[in-house]
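Backbone shape codes:
***
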Amino acid sequence: MAQQARHSFEDRDGRTSDRSLAGAAALCALIPRLVYLYSVRPHAFFNTALVDAGLYDQWANQILSGDWLSRSLGPTYLSPGYAYALAAIHFIFGSGFMPVFILQSIAGSISCGLVFLICLRSFESRSSAGIAAFISAFYAFSIFIEGTLTTASWIGLFNLSALFLILKSVQKGSLSSSFFAGLSLAASSLFRPNILLAVPLFAAYLWFKSPSPRWRTAVFFLAGLGLLLAPVIVRNGLVVKKFSVVPAASGGMVLYIGNVPEGKALDPDRPEIQGEFFRAEASRRAGRELSSDESSQFWLAQTVMFIRSSPAQWLGMMMNKASSFLNWYEIPSNYHFYFYKEIFPFFKFPFLAYGVVVPLGLLGFVLSIRNFGLGPVHILFLVYVLNALAFLVTAEYRYAAVPPLIIFAGHGLNEIYRAFQSRKFKTVLLYGLLLIPFYVLAYLNMGYHPAFGREYLKLGAAEGNRGNLESAADSFQKAIDHGGEGAAHFNLAEIRLRQNRPDLALGEFESAVRNFKNPADMLLGHLRLGQIYGSLNNLPAAEQQFKSALALEPNSLHAHQNLGNIYYMQKKTSLCRKEWEAALRLNPSDSALKANLQSLR
């Protein structure tokens, strides 16, 4: 049967038919994706860029404003590929997000076709390829993540393109395929640089597996990689004075969060301030101001120090991360899959989930090692497994390993079917025994439970940005009910102010300050309370709030200036002058403040 499939694959008409099947798989995958986008298009989530998505969108708009090299950003905490992709899409289609989601869904659908072709080239079985394509087309998390402002769909497309081209290069001796494989891998690295760890392995595979002369395919692969990365490296050298592949300065920070127990506790759980928070904390511990890149190096050193001092504890963390990687639960980061399932009826349809795919994928992985050796699909899967274990095991990080896992799942399920069809019941039993531990690992009770406080917080922000104040207030209240604590109270207070209800806002701001754990958040809470008390002419209460702010941050410009304003209203001239002078030292160019000080003399 395998020999017959091989002849069919290499026959010219067979090749055309296989491409047609891949195209049909892609079209089949596109249908549920477009239905999903159509059903959710009016929702606030799909018209607002929040957390990392907001940072990417701001970056894209900065590029469109003329800063093509992103000079003003310097080292960033995000990889540049997605920002430039968003800028290109906005330039062509305008500032809305639906064109982004449609293009990402098309990318995901093409990836489904590539899954079919890669599985076919790897295992020479249309049945395996068809099963893998079906799983890819109806995999729930793929449909979901392609409708969000994340890098996942593009990483999957470029990785699968590279896999397909590498396999084609080996089987056909195509130098152009090797070149474009390198180009695709370079494109993937601009969206997340982790894949660069696979470059030596892919180059070695091409060297040893390609038809003679072997070295040429590896050289063309590296040439394609270098062609795209060279201008990026030059740009980074010119702009951030560091000749690196990407200017992101978050590697050490993420490594610390994922490998040191204190890291997760220290994480402010707010991506929009995470990088700057860790840079400030690194500067405080180092006793001097650190740049973003120096901060990353600092946290890398702290991680290495912890691993050396507590290897047993670190190994325990690695085992927990390995269990999380195999577990059915999609750990949220920027987007919470289960929250979307809760609010959108579309996901009531029984789509395929990770808990179904991972046991079959692991079975296919084990069976394919025996028959196929350590091929490109194995390399891609193992590299992303190691990346997740080294950094974080969240749904978005883990998702890059899903396409190769689906390819293995197609092979594994087909092998079970072939054994059953051939009445090899001992083989079927053996496969079943192999599946049992994989299913146990996939469905272990890890103590996960969906907590939607943060999601209601983001939904409230999205509704507030659209001017739907009552819906925003309702969402923030639900965030409070789901344990949203300080941030939820603070945001609800801001909505009450926009509704001209300062009386209700006061109580929420007070609750926010009581529940905040981050000093920067507490400072902001005291400042807002002081402003509201001042607007209500409760000057003693306002004075106390600004003093509390200064106790947290003695160099707070706004606290000094506002406290000076309160003293001015209380006719405490000497105290007013003292606070305004302190504010002027912090902001010497403030002409209005200078005029106010002159008026006191």
